[in-house]
Protein: Coatomer subunit epsilon
Amino acid sequence: MAAPDLLFNLRNNFYLGAYQAAINNGDVPNLSQDDSIERDCLVYRSYIALGSFQLVINEIDSSAATPLQAVKLLALYLSSPDNKDATISSLQEWLGDAAIGSNPILRLVAGIVFMHEQDYNEALKHTNAGGTMELLALNVQIYLKMHRSDYAEKQLRVMQQIEEDHTLTQLANAWLNLSVGGSKIQEAYLIFQDFSEKYQMTGLILNGKAVCCMHMGNFDEAESLLLEALNKDAKDAETMANLVVCSLHLGKPSSRYISQLKLSHPDHMLVKRASTAEENFDRAVQAIA
Structure:
C-alpha cells in the first residue's frame, strides 16, 4: 500500500489559492527531510502570494536548501522593480550550475520569473522538460500566453496520463477550455463548480467561475461572484481587472476598480492600457483645442 501523502491538503490549498489556509495548516508532523523542504516552500510561496515578500526574504537564510533559496529569489524579484536585474542575474548563474541547475523548484521559479518578463522562450527553456505536475501546469500557462493552445493541449495530455483527477490537471484543463472557447466554456465552468463544491471557496475559484460566466454572457452572475472574491481579498489584481471588464459590459462605472488597481498594482497590463488610452484621449482633446 502506498504511504499516505502528508502534504496533499497543503498542496491543494496552495494550488486553489487558499493561501492563508496553507500557512495555517503548514505544521504537518512526521515529515521526511525532503517533505519538510517542500512544505516550507509551499508555506513561503503562500506568503509571497499574499504579498508578504519581506517576511520570506528575512526568514530564508543563506544556509537553506536550494529550493528555498529559489523561493527567496522569487520573493526578491516580486518585491521591487529595483531587484529585478540582480535577481535575474542570480537566477541565470544558479541555472548554469551543474550541481543545482536541474532542481525542479529552481526551474519552476525561473519559469515564473521569465513568464512575468514575457520572455516565454526563455521560460520554456527551463520548464519544458517537465518532471513535476507544477512544471507541466506552468508549461500549459506559458503556451496559452503564446496563443499556442495546440502545445498546451499536448502538455495537458501528459498531465492526464500521470493523474487525471489531480487538482493541477483539472485547473490546466479549465485554462485550456477557456482559451479554446465555444462549447468548452461550459466544461471549464463545471470544473470550477466542482472545486467550489469540494473545497474552500477562494478568489481563484470565484474568478474562474466569473470568467466563464462572462464568456457565456452572464455578466450579472459574474459580477456577484467577483464582488464575493473582492470581499475575500480587496487587493487581488485578477478580481479588480475582471470587475473592470464586467462593469463595462453592464454599463456601470469601472473607474473605482481601475483606481484601486493603479494603487495596488501599478504595473498591471490594464492600468498601462488605461493610461495609454487617457494619454491618447488628452492628445486628441488638445489637438481639437
The two ends are 79 Å apart (CA to CA). The mean pLDDT is 91. The chain is about 75% helix and 0% strand. The longest helix spans residues 269-288.
